[in-house]
Amino acid sequence: MTTEAKSPEADSTTAGPGTTGAGAAEGAELNAVERTALLTAALRAAETRRTDRLYEDPYAALLAGDIGTGLLAEVRAATFPAAAPRTVPSTPDYNAIRTRFFDDYLQQAAREPGMTQIVLAPAGMDSRAYRLDWPAHIRWFEVDRPSVLAYKADRLAGVAARTDHRTVPVDLTSPDWEQDLVAAGYDPAAPSTWLLEGLLYYIPEPDTHRILERVAAISAPGSRIAADIVNADALTLPQMRPLLDVFAGWNCPWLFGSDEPEALFDRYGYTVHAAQPGDPEADFGRWSDPVPPRSVPGHRRVFFVHGRRR
Fold first, then answer.
1. Which residues have a Cβ under 8 Å from the Cβ of 19 and sit 6 or more positions away?
2. Which pLDDT value is given to residue 31?
3. Residue 195 has what DSSP assignment?
4. What is the rounded distance in angstroms from the CA atom of residue 170 to the CA atom of residue 176?
5. What are phi and psi of 286, to 5 degrees?
6. Cβ 140 vs Cβ 162: under 8 Å
7. Who's near 246: CB < 8 A, 6+ residues apart?
8. Residue 22 CB-density burial (10 A; 0-12 exposed, 13-18 middle, 19+ buried)
9. β strands within 182-266, DSSP E
10. Helices (H), ranges, 126-223
11. Nearest 5 degrees, angle CA 138-CA 282-CA 84?
């Protein structure tokens, strides 16, 4: 199923989601799914420490805190078991590829004539507005629950964004979050670029459809979208169980996958392409697992979906 990979250097702390003390207090207001944003930050901090890093995130360790570091320790233990071969995808390598892929995608979009708006929904602990340079005409919107954005603002106090950065503290399940986004300066009549990163596999299928429908409804023709999504087998294959059990144990199980992401997005007016880690455009020399043709069943897959609103 997968090839054996050497475990990246482990983090020094092994505190978990139940950690007590300052680290736990700092993230106590975040729910289970929101804490996975701290895991992502910890993964980005670990990548930044590598000599062969695919990107550099100087704020990731600060955002991750003790909780994120503890979550990463649990993922490493499941991904790289001490007495058995690896059977699940390498989360550190996957996250590094995903981050770099979407870094490049967003920066390419920002240079496109007429593109003035970038929306991260949800924003989580993303620091692209702070760590990357952006054209002066870009308005950068971060949509997430108030507790997430408050935690992030506290951790990054005194750090200036490198763009016209606007936060929209609202739950994406709210019936009127679009109004909050427009009130922050978003123009539905102008082209926009949306990134739905680390979201769709955590929500039930009906919610995925609602999110895509609502994003499409306020995206002008020519707008761009990008997201990551797993296939259906990634939710059920026995080889995936060690990783799935970790997330389920945190009360944030993976709930949705699609074998036809192009058709999923097409339903809402998007023409997209779905790349897999290991494909030439999504490899960066870091994906060691085979990538069988999509016609071959019984393989877990993840897709980086990207395209345009018709």
1. 66, 67, 70
2. 86
3. E
4. 9
5. -120, -5
6. no
7. 74, 75, 78
8. exposed
9. 192-196, 224-230
10. 128-131, 146-155, 177-183, 205-217
11. 130
pLDDT of 168 reads: 98
Cβ neighbours, 10 Å, residue 40: 23
CA-to-CA distance for 6 and 234, rounded, in angstroms?
22
Q: Determine the Cα–Cα distance for residues 250 and 18; give it in Å rounded to an integer.
A: 10
Q: Which two tokens stand for residue 200?
A: 């769709």
Q: Report the length, in residues, of the chain.
A: 310
Q: How far is CA 40 from CA 47, 122, 127, 180, in A?
A: 11, 13, 11, 26
The residue with tokens 């877990």 is 300
User: What stretches in the chain show pLDDT beneath 70?
Assistant: 1-28
Two tokens, residue 131? 């760590």
Cα-flanking dihedrals φ and ψ of residue 26, to 5°? -60, -30
Cα–Cα distance between 125 and 39 in angstroms, integer?
9
Q: Which two tokens stand for residue 223?
A: 């707008």
- Looking at residue 85, its amino acid is P
Residues near 22 by beta carbon (within 8 Å), at least 6 away in sequence: 66
Q: What is the pLDDT of residues 181-236, one digit of tens each?
A: 999 999 999 999 999 999 999 999 999 999 999 999 999 999 999 999 999 999 99
pTM, two decimal places: 0.91
Whose structure tokens read 């100087």? 58
Write the DSSP assignment of 83-147 as a string of letters: TS---S--HHHHHHHHHHHHHHHHHHHHTSTT--EEEESS-TT--HHHHS---TT-EEEEEE-HH
pLDDT single digits (tens) 2-31: 333 333 333 333 333 333 333 335 566 788
* β partners of residue 126: none
Q: In this structure, which long-range contacts are made by residues 134-137, counting pairs with CB atoms below 8 Å and at least 24 apart in sequence?
A: 134/107, 134/110, 134/162, 134/163, 135/110, 135/111
